Structures are given as structure tokens and as C-alpha cells.
From TrEMBL:
Transmembrane segments: 75-97, 103-127
Keyword terms, alphabetized: Membrane, Transmembrane, Transmembrane helix
Domain of life: Bacteria
Protein name per its UniProtKB record: General stress protein 17M-like domain-containing protein
Thylakoid keyword on record: no
Domain General stress protein 17M-like: 27-104
Region (Disordered): 1-26
Residue runs in coiled coils: none
Length: 173
């Protein structure tokens, strides 16, 4: 996995003390991250010094996709389920430390307590919204476009390689 805080012109050992903007000249611009990643893969296959390349997401936006409607039944069911998992986990841990292997009691107590607390916390959380948010959703940070940058001494070579990639027929890419 790469570190977005390292690269040419930036501290290479550890994370910098302050965020640093990307450096380099644009050599390609793509509509999706997958396309930008494919371009960098092409550069790597062409023996381009990819350690001097940066993919920059431009025009960032937070996208919230609604996944469903919330009701008291769904909220309480989800709270009970998550509480049950946590209670089961705590019960199993406590069961490991009980004498003579009598682990069933702590597991059942943990499970029951977890369900009760899960129900209570879910009910309090949902009631506190007072109907202002009766849906579930998933949020994602996406960019309007992804620019591939290279350091100036390699920018022209990078542009030429990416131009050759763009001229290939779609099936060859």
C-alpha cells in the first residue's frame, strides 16, 4: 500500500508534520480512479519511474447513497443484533476465565445483556432524531476527475506513454 504523504519533494521517512500539496505536472486526466490506476499501471509496465507519479482527485464531493427506510422494527432489530454480537464476544472472553470450563453461563449472560443494551442504545439514538432522518445511507468521498502528475523531468515521457495508451483499441487496454 502506498503512502500519500511520501514522494519526491516530500519527507521520505515517516509522515510529514503538515499536509503537503502534490507536486508535478499533469500528464493525464481521467474520469474514474480505475482509469487513472490503469494509466499508472501502463507507465509501470513501460519502465517509467512511477515513484515520481501522483494520482490527485480533483473536485471532491461527498456522495451519500440512501440504502433504505428506517422504522422502529429495523432500528431495534439492528440494535439487538449488534448488541448480541458484542455480548457474545464479552461472554466468550469471560467464559475463558471461569473455573472448570463452565463457559455457558457467562456466554448466555453476556448475550442477554448485550441484546438489552443494544436495544436501549438503538432506541435512544433513533428517538433523539425525532423523525428527521428516517433512512439509512452510506457515504463515500469521490472526485470529479483524477489527474496523474509526474515530476517535470519525466512529464514529457509520461505524456507520450499515456498518449500511446489512449490510441490503443479498447479491447487491447
Amino acid at each position: 500500500m502506498s503512502n500519500p504523504f511520501t514522494g519526491p519533494g516530500r519527507q521520505s521517512a515517516g509522515t510529514p508534520s503538515l499536509p503537503t500539496p502534490p507536486t508535478g505536472w499533469p500528464i493525464g486526466s481521467y474520469g474514474t480512479y480505475e482509469e487513472a490506476q490503469r494509466a499508472v499501471d501502463h507507465l509501470a509496465e513501460s519502465d517509467f519511474p512511477v515513484q515520481e507519479v501522483t494520482i490527485v482527485g480533483v473536485d471532491l464531493m461527498l456522495v451519500e447513497r440512501v440504502t433504505g427506510r428506517l422504522s422502529w422494527g429495523r432500528v431495534l432489530g439492528g440494535g439487538a443484533a449488534s448488541g448480541a454480537w458484542f455480548g457474545l464476544f464479552v461472554g466468550l472472553i469471560l467464559g475463558m476465565f471461569t473455573p472448570q470450563g463452565s463457559w455457558l453461563g457467562p456466554v448466555l449472560v453476556g448475550l442477554g445483556t448485550g441484546v438489552v443494551f443494544g436495544l436501549v442504545f438503538a432506541a435512544v439514538g433513533y428517538a433523539s432524531t425525532r423523525g428527521r432522518r428516517d433512512f439509512s445511507s452510506a457515504s463515500q468521498l469521490v472526485a470529479g476527475r483524477y489527474d496523474v502528475l509526474a515530476q517535470p523531468k519525466h512529464a514529457e515521457e509520461g505524456r507520450n506513454l499515456l498518449a500511446k495508451l489512449a490510441m490503443r483499441p479498447p479491447s487491447a487496454q
